[in-house]
Amino acid sequence: MTERMRRRLPVLLVAALGLISLVLPLFLSTTNIEIYVTIGLSTIVVIGLSLLMGFAGQVSLGQAAFYGIGSYTAAILSLHGWSSLEALIAAPIVTAFLAFLIGIPLLRLQGHALAFGTLAVQLIFLAVIPETASLTGGSIGLSGIPSLRIGPLAIGSGRDYAYLVWIVVVAALIVARNLTRSRPGRGLRAMAASVSGASATGVEVVRYRLKDFTLSAAFAGIAGGIYVFFIGYISPDAFPVILSIEFVIMVVVGGIGTVSGALVGAVLVTVISQVLTSLGTNPSLPAQLPTVLSLGVYALVLIVILRLAPAGLVGVLRNLWKKGGAASPSSSRESGGTGVDVVPIGEGTGREVPLLVDEASPGPSTFLAGQ
């Protein structure tokens, strides 16, 4: 395959994804449509989280909080006189604004401290909801959320939401891919390789991290807004801490620092989650079994991926792709022949750099591996 075809391949894959996402709902049952929508919503969240972890080099254990903020924003506004479309548009804006305010002090932390700081954001979110019952419905939640309307178009059936969600997925993939190819994207890739090196070359590390953190939250906010209209009901039980852990696992499984890895990871982990949840419906098994199993299965998945495929499933596929073709001289130069494992940072950039080699700033790989 020529180099020109290789460069066009990502565009063709996005076009194929868009076509499949439009055709597939026609052949799915009601139950499978719900799973399909869930995969799409998770993909949107994980695309933003992948930008944060793979490019800014920051682990977030509180992404479900921003998912929930987007959901509650859309739900509350739609119940207080706003149109459903206006509420949906406000969801990512409000979420991004709150993430910006939270990020100003939070992003002063580094490594493990930052990861646990984002976990604290999740716990604070879950603690605040019951204390604001007059607005959020507390532990009982909010019901009677109106259906989503986009102009004259009513979004009512599961198939309608499937189309809407996957249109947003494709749009998010395009935005993320273009961002990684832009000047800010190059700055983020430099930060992922070495924070001190990026700073020395003029990259405003703090500002870039804050913008990336805000954008990541906005992706979660729009997904949360769609989710609440799809379900028609919202309660804090929908945003447990384990959901934030699932999002992180999706990023790692798909491939840290890759845009398409968000889709691969979301599909695999969502399917695993659905299988574990189905076990809870069996009356002969304990109700707590899915939760206990999920912790064990997720731990096993993380161990296997970090040890056998640190670049994720997308990284494995890339390696197989390269082995299938002739090795280019540029690939040899970029790896330096040192035998150091590299993780692709930035899809379609034509370069591979070691992920977070700056020991002074441990990133997602070192945090998850416990190093």
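Second entry:
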Amino acid sequence: MSAKKTFSINNSRRDLQRLERQARKGEIAAQLTLANIYESDRNIFDIGLAAMWYLQAAQQGSAEAQVRIGEMYLEGAGIRKDPGEAVVWFKKAAATGNPDALSNLAWCHLKGLGVRKDLTHAFKLYSQSAAQNHHSSCYNLGYMYEHGYGVQHDARLAFSWYLEAAQQGNAKAQLKIGTLYGSGRGVSRDQIEAVEWYRKAAEQDYAKAQYNLAMMYSTGKGVPEDQRQACKWLRKAAEQGYVRAQYNLGICYLDGNGCGKDHIEALDWLLKAAGRDYTRAQYQLGKIYATGQGVPIDLQEAAGWFKLAAKKGHARAQFSLGKLFIEGLGVEQDPVVAFNWFTKAAESGYPPAQYSLGVMYGKGRGVTRDYIKAYGWLFAAATADEPHAMTVLRKLKSKMSREELLKGGILGERLCLEYSS
């Protein structure tokens, strides 16, 4: 999006009235300034008036105004949303070589907004804009090379264009350069370089980069391990609402890792993440209430959090919920429901659930007794070194016929292939 001018009217009504008189006479500079004031001054903010004056200037041929009114049509800001009309204005400004217009028009072709989707043409437009050192166009060229959109995939050229944008201060590109150095895609792997590029983006308050930098400090990749620094950067990202940082910061406070152990802080950050539907935080809250970590044990509350995570496929939450149903803790006892949750977790490759499922088949609890299926699931759990699985398996063998043992062994091998963790 195009940069905006700044203007101060010093709360002077006279200045504003003078600008309006000049704007009505058709002075483009006054129209642009007035539009910027109405768009950015909190005291007299009026996005509708801003759009009106941008449109006036655009109709007189101002490329800057044409770009901005195009953006407003695209966003539906102060004017009806109309991608087709946005494209009309972007084309007018692009004809003058305006890099913002070329970039916005490329985006429309990339996404099929108001114009036929055409990745090849989008690539061409981004190239024209990038040739004028337009940093977001440089970034998007990198993205297109990385994914093979409108051009043949080329990891090295992707890195090169990302670097061009990163060197111009584009935070998203700096983050991307960090991840490419970290993974060794398009460039030799270098964790030290990864850290430095994460840091550049993090210092621009880019939350995702702050989180990545925290993880580097936490694991000691490219930088000496420093849990305090990890917590510092996690907090910066968490305070911006980055949900993975909120979860990890909660875990840090829960364990006292890099910061003082503080169950109130831990609960606060985990609740923030869980409230944004972050599954791992929901599971962790279930554990906290089930075990009484800094809160009174509340198995009903635990069951509620486990269920939220379990429904989204979190295997440990499914297993934990199954355990509550098998014992009737915090929920009404129901072996059938427990069996169903154990099955989901077992089929996700979670060995404790595979073991529990084997035991239930062996005892006929919550399901019809079936020694062959019991053997198969216990075999899968034992192969994953689940404690006690081999012991129970040996006891089960004494109850099975030779034919059942053969079928159970075949089933166990298949389950290991299908549902190994």
